[in-house]
Structure prediction request, 532 residues.
Amino acid sequence: MDQVAVEVRASYPKALATLIRLLGDFGAAEDALQEALARAVETWPRDGVPDNAVAWLVTTGRRWTIDGYRRRRVEARYIQSVVVAEAAEPAEDSVLEEALTLHVRDDLLALLFTCCHPAIAEEAQISLTLKTVAGLSVEEIARAFLVSPAAMERRLSRVKRKISEAKIPYEVPKAALLPERLRAVLAVVYLIFNEGYSASGHKQLIRVELCDEAIRLGRLLVRLFRDEPEVVGLLALLLLQHSRHRARLDQNGEIVLLDVQDRSLWDMRLTVEGRFLVEKALRMKRPGGYQVQAAIAAVHSEALAPEDTDWAQIAELYGVLERYQPSPVVTLNRAVAVAKDQGPEAGLALLQALEGSADMQRYHHFHAAKAALLAEAGRAGEAAGHFEAALGLTQNPAERRFIERKLASLS
Amino acid sequence: MLYTMLIYAAEESIENYTPEQRERCLVGHRHLQQRAKAKDAFLAAGELVSTSSATTVRRRDGKHRVVDGPFAETKEHLVGFYIFDCEDLDQALAYAKEIPHAGSGSVEVRPMAHLESVATV
Prediction:
């Protein structure tokens, strides 16, 4: 398996250079190569690495680009099926007429920006995006958000009425508004993913579907905004997180923490693509929160065993993330990483800064993390107190069992 | 499409403006109105006298009740309004962001139901 990753890394620059010459366009070449790499990690482990890996990547990428014309026709059919499904609902006639006259690419984009307009409440943005852009049924969305289909239907019709009554524009926003609005679109995609990712145990199937939808939307955005590093960074983050989904729960639906996960269950295809995208994003030299989070996930994905993890680099990246997204949770993660790198006392020293935060005092992960560091530092008595505090703050049965096991192992 | 901007703010903060704050606020309103007029988007604007002079009327079961004071006792009250003619919500929101009180109070943007409703403005 790992030989494939080595080969991919070695072949990348040559294949890219050749593709740029053949296709005459840097961006198109990168896209073609990305596709070829995705196929390589799928087929090489099975069929063996080809004799001339570079030639294989170039041929595959070039053929994919030539097939692009046909792919765009398929995409157009997809849009039409969404539009036809929506046409049954009379309130949007004027919007639809306009939509049909637009170019497919602009059409889908406009739809996405309308769904994620800041004048629409966040929950409704997510539901509407899943309904119109991702094409999920009302029942599927209702199930994912644990509400009745009737309630979801009401939420959707309320937001559609607001779009038409308040005249929320159906267009890609003007340049001045674009960065802010693109952030909103990325946030919605990220929230859709988290809806699926944070689920544990029951209803797992539909939740994995949400992760898949978020990734599909992320891919779409990368195709449309390939020069926006945060867009690329978000897709990388989603792929790297999702690559671990098979290892995150055991047969009984119990949470499996990162450092004890069976890493052979990680999806190599997703980690290779995710790492490729992080590097591509970071090369654009406009870092941001999603890119840094993706970089952290990438460092984790590079460790074949937990003890190989480059904690110093992860701690440093959390420090960078604090600049883009200052929050006590990020500081907490940094403290844990620093502790892994320099020992529990160094982590505990950083946690000192969070003691005054009321949110943290109510946050069971804060107490559980602090307890683990205290235990590691040989301060079992204090550790027990914080494990108890964590127990008092979470109702989630899987988490409670996890903390109880830790508590029992102290004595 | 006509949009009404309802400006909500804490009255005492406006009453306690320093002369410089008051001047800055007025300049902001003047600029906004000039810009909107240049685009034929300006219909009306008004500043309301403080809620201490407000009277609220309700009819219940056929009987009118007239009470002293504003509609609701809250920290922020309706202190003024604008009516703009805009292409869509994004344009309306762009005007709303320019209203000086958006910085300390809030501006509620509401589409108006019918053109006729402002025929007399």
Summary: Chain A touches chain B at residues 117, 119, 165-169, 173-174, 177 (CB under 8 Å).
